[in-house]
Automatic annotation (TrEMBL):
The keyword Oxidoreductase applies. NCBIfam families: precor6x_red, PRK08057.1-2. InterPro entries: Precorrin-6x_reduct (IPR003723). One of its GO terms (biological process) is cobalamin biosynthetic process. This is Precorrin-6A reductase. Pfam families: CbiJ (PF02571). The keyword Mitochondrion does not apply.
Amino acid sequence: MRVLLLGGTAEARALAPRLHPDVDVISSLAGRVPDPALPVGAVRIGGFGGVDGLRRWLRDEKVDAVVDATHPFAATITAHAAQVCEELGLPHLVLARPAWDHGDAIVVTSDTEAAKVVAEQEYSRVFLTTGRSGVGAFVHSDAWFLIRAVTAPDSDRLPRRHQLLLSRGPYDYAGEYALMREHRIDALVTKNSGGQMTRAKLDAAAALDIPVVMVDRPPLPPGVTTVGSVAEAVEWVGGIDAETM
Ligand code: NAP
């Protein structure tokens, strides 16, 4: 049985070795970051060329099922996979790590709305962790930003006053606490990515009484089968495997 595993996340890297080599897994990465952490087994890198490209690729490669373990904010590839799998009648699963509790955070639905909240609340020293693609919404902000991202945003997308911190998680509580204190942060802006790798910033912000602005997840396509853990995804693939044997 051949499974396309849409990845770019820790969950996808954890799932691949749980399936390989019994299942013929091909992991797919978007190719956004240089020198990505690679999962075991076969890997392909780069976009498929939209819905049509993905449909063609799945047919050409004789894929039997698709597991979408992309990041909860990777909404385009998730929509494409849902649409094409439905059209082709392919078993399709979304592995979405559980969201964080909002707690006392100010919840918004976009980076643009988050930027509005920063202006309205007059935050002045913001820890911005919404990733490379989210930074552009803050370009006209008067606040100072500590921007943490895996790869540098385009220079014309950066706010006037900022410091760039290029790094990749996981992050721990002590480090996040020290970082926010050192930079006298007065607000944390984050996506609701979920998972343990980057949640320490929320605990550190709570301890330091720093308000949090949280961008909520985009909705999943209607009707998709979803699980929240790697173990459940392994079980789901096992179920399909049994059906096709
Ligand atoms: P996106 O907006 O949903 O996707 C944009 C385009 O990138 C897709 O239409 C597709 O191109 C291509 N693509 C995305 N994921 C792909 C994959 N796994 N394999 C092959 N092509 C892929 O996605 P994004 O937000 O740019 O994220 C890109 C990747 O980075 C995802 O795989 C995701 O898991 C990972 N990631 C994203 C975030 C985030 O915050 N968004 C954080 C950590 C990791 P075509 O239309 O040409 O097929």
